[in-house]
Amino acid sequence: MNSEQKISDRVLKVKNYIEERKDWQLQDLQNFFNNASNDKKITDFEKEILTELCEKIISERFPKKNSRKILNNKSSEAKILLEEVYSDLIKNYDLSKNKVKNGVKPGGYMIGGQMYVDWYISYKNDEKFNTSFAYLQKSEETEPYIEVNFRKVGTDLDEKKDFPIPLKDEALLLFKNNLSKIINKTN
Prior knowledge:
Elements: H1 9-20, H2 26-38, H3 44-61, H4 65-70, H5 76-92, E1 105-106, H6 108-111, E2 117-124, E3 129-137, E4 145-152, E5 158-164, H7 168-186
Antiparallel strand pairs: 1-2, 2-3, 3-4, 4-5
Helix pairs in contact: 1-3, 2-3
């Protein structure tokens, strides 16, 4: 992520409001998260600031029942797999020009309650090409899977391919090919 990115006054006001409010209910935080994730008037960088703040408050204010249910215990397998993938990526790719935050991140569908597990790694360049490698599970009863996405933000280009977990190496190969294309387009 580029450290030169700015936060708008509007987002700063919302961030301060979220930080200062003391009477949060879980549903309110989930709604804020969903609204920030879907707001087309703010940058991806600003979305990440707001969604990470909501995640932090959920973990702090609902430390037992709700935060574990939403973010933690069910996600350990996803986080382990994605941390291994990310560790390999930082050794082999220059991610310094990523326009979104580097690392393993919780997905909006999980925090918003639409997905049981949703963790991902993503990269977006200056030209708004984006690729992601996501570990997803729709419900506790369904099998997890990996989704590789390649898209250009603001256009109809949006290619997704799902892989069962045993085919994670194939998914990773597709993600690395997408990543190579996107990083090369940056220069």
